[in-house]
Amino acid sequence: MYYDDFFFGKVNVKKPVLNLREVISLSNQVSCEFFTNQINRLLFKTGGRLTLSDGTSFPPLKDFLDSILVEQAGFVELYARTDVNNNVEATLACDIFFPEGVITIMAHWCAYKTMRADEIISTLLIPLHLKGLHERTYIVFGNDDKEHLLCDGDIENEIINFFKLSKYPLDITSEGNDRKRIDEYCSLVKNAMMENKGD
């Protein structure tokens, strides 16, 4: 069942999926407050669920987070999916919980090779830290198995768990490339946290 929404256009109420980049383009025309109100209104209309999809491995999550009132995001959950790309072990997804429901960011976030792993750091993990959302973000390993993204300020453990979730874990005992990548990712996260505190 489709209906024409005055702001978002044609929406399938029973299976609401919109293009992430098109939604961001709409957000650029209005204030963060107005846009966030429209997000909540649409979530109420669709029964509390909305998927924003992106067909790439580098979705503009940062732009979306910049377009909303971040205080309206109660918490965030990161989890693995196996229904997006059959050619890889898993892709990552991000659920953002608003007052009126949940927005799922569905993209091709995957760590099956170094370039893609770099992308999930830069386009998923870093934006959450830049907006301060890491403090209320959880990694979901299973129905009864989830933990804070950043536990006790241990950034290295955050990186290790993040890649464990991706189904392409990094070897913490390695003295080679994995060790170097862990150190680089930790440095990027620290810089993002410092930038957030500076704001």
Could you give a quick summary of the protein structure above?
β8 (137-142) and β9 form a beta hairpin.
Side by side, the strands of the main sheet go 3-4-7-6-5-8-9
What is the CA-based Rg, rounded?
17 Å
Principal-axes geometry comes out as globular
Structural class: alpha/beta
Assembly state of the chains shown: single chain
State the helix count: 6
Pattern of helices and strands: EEEHHEHEEEHEEHH
Number of strands: 9
Report the helical percentage. Answer: 25-40%
Beta-strand proportion: 25-35%
**Overall domain count:** 1
Uncertain ranges: none
Provide mean pLDDT, rounded. Answer: 95
Mind describing the biggest β-sheet? 7 strands, mixed
Q: Ends: how far apart?
A: 43 Å
